[in-house]
Hints:
This protein is of the alpha+beta class. The chain is built from eleven helices and 37 strands. The strands form nine sheets. Strands 1, 2, 3, 4, 5, 6, 7, 8, 9 and 10 form a ten-stranded mixed sheet that branches. Strands 11-14-17-15-16 form a five-stranded mixed sheet, with helices on one face.
Amino acid sequence: MTKLFYTPDEDVKVHExxxxxxxxxxxxxxxxxxxxxxxxxxxxxxxxDVPESKRVIVVIFDYGRKTARPSISCLxxxxxxxxxxxxxxxxxADPEASRRGAEGAAVQGGHGNGGKSYMTQMFDDYALLHTVxxxxxxxxxxxxxxxxxxxxxxxxxxxxxQVGDLRRELDRVLGPLRLSIAALPDSAQxxxxxxxxxxxxxxxxPKGCGNRIPTRHLVDGLQDHPQMIRTLELCKVLLMVNxxxxxxxxxxxxxxxxPMEGASEPKLIPIPVVLKDPVLEEEVSTTNGGSxxxxxxxxxxxxxxxxWSRKGRHNIVYxxxxxxxxxxxxxxLDVQSPYRDRIYGECHLDALEALKQNVRARLANSPLTxxxxxxxxxxxxxxxxxxxxxxRRRSDQEEKNALSKMNEALDRWKNAxxxxxxxxxxxxxGGTKTDRVERLPSGKPARLELVLTHQRAGLxxxxxxxxxxxxxxxxxxxxVPFKWVSEDNNVAMVDEDLMIINTFALGRTIISAQTLExxxxxxxxxxxxVHIHHIAISPREIKIPAGxxxxxxxxxxxxxxxxxxxxxxxxxxxxxHVARVRSSGLVFxxxxxxxxxxxxxxxxxxxxxxxxxxxxxxxxGAGDQRG
Length: 627
């Protein structure tokens, strides 16, 4: 760990420590914190009304080396004065901090917490900003575990020091990151030559990243995060990794979402001036009594399901005068239709401005919020019904014939399956098998054997342990009363009623069982809850006949850089009528069609689902395809 020598401000305006900790909770990941830095850079450009061609932001990932710790940085060519630092930046919970001095709606604003929250809790060493504006420089930062910022090394040495050559100073501070102005993409070099300032934010020792920052994962997160929509629209966001240009210096862009056939144009729906609050059943004005203009709901479509690879964009984004103010996931709306997974959009309503919250996700609960969300749900439902009706109109005799053939094939498979089942139950010769499976005998246990299907698991998953009891002769017997033991219940513990292990936090624990009197203890099995950065499902596409099965693997890249497929995850399918997947990744095919299979935990989901195509079954399969 490297140390930062700085002098915390004595006169800084802060809330009580408990309030600050509560404020920071929304930014406990790099995926949510890094967009805050970029938003602040975009706002700095907007305050100065910089032409869009010169709004360049450079994100810098440095994996570290023997002489330097890993770091994440964000560079813009705007710069801050000590006045901005002291009157705006350092003050917690100041919604107007980013908007002071701005005259347009391009400033996204916030609550004055996001960037600082990210700096104070997502880096193991420290975080700082080195900024220059009009010939004066400032170094200002905070050590890990503190929320009190200060000048580096002190107010005399780190505040308003003279900078004679801006570009030489920028080259100097980029050096430890293995960079220089000449190494930046051309568009950044051009801006650096004419800028009158810059701000370099750097966090040293990013939490959960080890010696390798998950660049691809964080880049995907930036492109998918609702907070980044406006920033990517207004600025060129470039990336540098270990001193090299990422993707040949091309700027990040919002991924293009191809619309459904027949719905290439967005659907524009005027928002009524008056809506009804579904809770109080009272009318609510959407214009604040005429103070604001009426809003517009814009709905768009995707040619594929957005539940998995496009999950970050599968929202209704709320916009108001300041631009992006929050969003609601479409999956949380009251919509019952398979086409729900292909609809997204935005709701522009200026009256919602006052309801944005600290994290700019869900809006504050209010009669207007509830009324608007109910209206949005109704419109998404109605739009989805239009596509369902279109599908019904497209049905013709050929499809009916195909369905009939599928049913015949399924009947053949069902009959063959039942025949095999009956053979197993009543004997291979067709006669009735009279021997019934006997229950395990009772007895006094001499040994307990505990088995876990996985010794590594994701965060927030649940799986069942297997516990067997044996008598002195080594024969398996019925269980006697026992209890489960986890050496660290904060990491994982066994639910005594459901008999399943639940994982709660990253770390390691030991799982075991013991009889109630404590005389007999099972073997102890280690369990590690791991930090997953990326999940890839292999193979990406499979084709199996109805009645067949196929094993999928989920390859996890961990925070340490290790790749493994032996992590317990939650598996799910988009259409269980076509196929279902077990917790082991084994897919069972039921009926002809196509479904998506995905795996993940509470924090990470496979970006690309596996496509499972089930064909008409023709008798028994072989090998992995066998029913």
